[in-house]
Write a structure and sequence with these properties.
Length: 125
């Protein structure tokens, strides 16, 4: 017995609560998957190929609770996008050295990257 089912059948089983993670969903012959259906499949653990996902503006329903024009709000999203975040595991001895010497890790990493960049530019010439 095959555990393969079509995306359409998977959506039907998901809506009735009968979908099992042991089922393999195939997308053969599928031209596209509506964005909301892709979300439902994703929540059930099914990876939908990105190139198949689409959304249709005509299916968007106006929100009755929202009435009026859109207003721009101040946001720091653009500011945050300019930052690089790094996570790294450090040896406890190095962490102690950083803490005991009150080293600004952000400044240290920034300077190291800038120096590495400048050095690389000099070597290229």
């Amino acid at each position: 017995m095959s555990n393969q089912i079509s995306a359409k059948e998977a959506l039907r089983l998901i809506s009735t609560g009968q979908f099992s993670s042991q089922m393999e969903v195939t997308f053969e012959g599928v031209d596209g998957v509506e964005a909301l259906d892709a979300v439902a499949l994703g929540e059930a653990g099914v990876d939908v190929p990105e190139h198949l996902i689409f959304y249709d503006d005509s299916t968007i329903v106006d929100d009755e609770e929202f009435d009026g024009p859109w207003k721009k709000i101040d946001s720091d999203i653009e500011e945050e996008a300019r930052y690089l975040q790094i996570e790294m595991k450090l040896d406890p001895e190095i962490r102690n050295w950083i803490n005991s010497n009150r080293i600004d890790v952000n400044l240290l990493v920034k300077k190291l990257i800038e120096d590495a960049y400048r050095t690389a530019k000099l070597v290229q010439k």
